[in-house]
C-alpha cells in the first residue's frame, strides 16, 4: 500500500498494488552519502524534469536496516524485498508547488535494481501530461534515450503507452489495471493505474 515518504510513499507491491491516502511523514534521514550511481541518476531525472517545469527534491537516503524495513518495504515478495539494501526517495511538484508524486530507487549500495515513479492525478486525469513527462524523463535517465529507435511494443513514445493504459482502465469498472511488460535496452518496464479517493495513482516500474 503506497504511503508517501516526505509527503512520502512506502509501497507494498506484489502482483497488485493497493492505494491509500498520502500521509505526510518525516523519516529519519540516513547521513551516509548515497552512492555515485544513485546521485547521478537522480540528478539526470531532476535536470530533465526541471526543463519541463516540474520540481524534484533532493533524495532522502536510507540504508540502515530498521529504516529500510519501516520506510522502504516495497514488496510483499520476500525475494524482491531482499533486494532492498539501499533506498532513495524524492518528491515531485508542479510549477505551482502542487504535490505530484515521488520517485524511488532501491537496490544494492552500489546501484539501483528497481526504479519506481508514482504520480497522483485528479478524477479528470487533468495532470496526464505530467504523468507522461515524469515517466519519459525517468526512462531517458535510467534506461536510455532510445525509445524512438527501439519502439518497445511497437509504440512510438511512452505517451502512447500511457494513453493506452488510461483507455483500457476507463473502458470498464476496474479499480486497478496493469499494462503488459515492455523491454527497452534490456530493462523491463511496467505501468499500473489504480483509482483512489483523490483520483488515480499512476505507477511506473523499471527493473534492471
Summarize the structure.
The chain has helices at 36-50, 65-71, 78-81, 128-142, 147-150, 158-170, and strands spanning 55-56, 60-62, 86-93, 99-107, 112-121, 176-178, 182-184, 187-196, 199-207. By secondary structure, the protein is of the alpha+beta class. It is globular and about 45 Å long.
Please write out the topology:
Blueprint lengths: L35 H15 L4 E2 L3 E3 L2 H7 L6 H4 L4 E8 L5 E9 L4 E10 L6 H15 L4 H4 L7 H13 L5 E3 L3 E3 L2 E10 L2 E9 L1
Antiparallel strand pairs: 1-3, 2-3, 3-4, 4-5, 5-9, 6-8, 7-8, 8-9
Helix pairs in contact: 1-4
Protein name: Extracellular protein
Would you write up a description of this structure?
- The structure is a single chain.
- With 208 residues, this protein is an alpha+beta fold.
- It has one domain.
- The chain contains six helices and nine strands.
- The protein has helices at 36-50, 65-71, 78-81, 128-142, 147-150, 158-170, and strands at residues 55-56, 60-62, 86-93, 99-107, 112-121, 176-178, 182-184, 187-196, 199-207.
- Strands 1, 2, 3, 4, 5, 6, 7, 8 and 9 form a nine-stranded antiparallel sheet that branches.
- A hairpin with a 2-residue loop joins strand 8 and strand 9.
- Helix 1 (36-50) packs antiparallel against helix 4 (128-142).
- It is globular.
- The relative contact order is 0.16.
Amino acid at each position: 500500500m503506497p504511503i508517501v515518504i516526505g509527503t512520502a510513499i512506502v509501497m507494498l507491491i506484489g502482483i497488485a498494488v493497493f492505494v491509500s491516502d498520502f500521509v505526510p511523514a518525516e523519516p529519519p534521514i540516513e547521513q551516509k552519502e548515497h552512492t555515485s550511481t544513485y546521485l547521478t541518476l537522480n540528478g539526470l531525472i531532476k535536470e530533465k524534469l526541471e526543463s519541463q517545469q516540474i520540481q524534484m527534491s533532493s533524495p532522502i537516503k536510507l540504508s540502515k536496516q530498521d529504516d529500510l524495513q519501516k520506510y522502504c518495504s516495497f514488496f510483499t515478495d520476500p525475494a524482491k524485498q531482499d533486494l532492498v539494501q539501499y533506498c532513495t526517495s524524492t518528491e515531485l511538484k508542479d510549477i505551482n508547488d502542487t504535490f505530484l508524486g515521488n520517485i524511488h530507487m532501491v537496490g544494492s549500495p552500489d546501484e539501483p535494481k528497481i526504479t519506481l515513479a508514482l504520480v497522483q492525478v485528479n478524477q479528470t486525469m487533468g495532470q496526464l501530461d505530467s504523468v507522461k513527462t515524469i515517466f519519459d524523463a525517468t526512462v531517458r535517465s535510467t534506461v536510455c534515450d532510445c525509445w524512438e529507435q527501439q519502439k518497445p511494443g511497437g509504440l512510438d513514445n511512452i505517451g502512447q503507452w500511457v494513453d493506452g493504459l488510461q483507455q483500457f482502465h476507463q473502458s470498464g469498472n476496474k479499480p486497478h489495471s496493469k499494462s503488459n511488460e515492455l523491454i527497452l535496452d534490456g530493462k523491463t518496464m511496467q505501468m499500473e493505474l489504480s483509482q483512489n479517493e483523490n483520483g488515480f495513482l499512476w505507477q511506473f516500474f523499471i527493473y534492471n
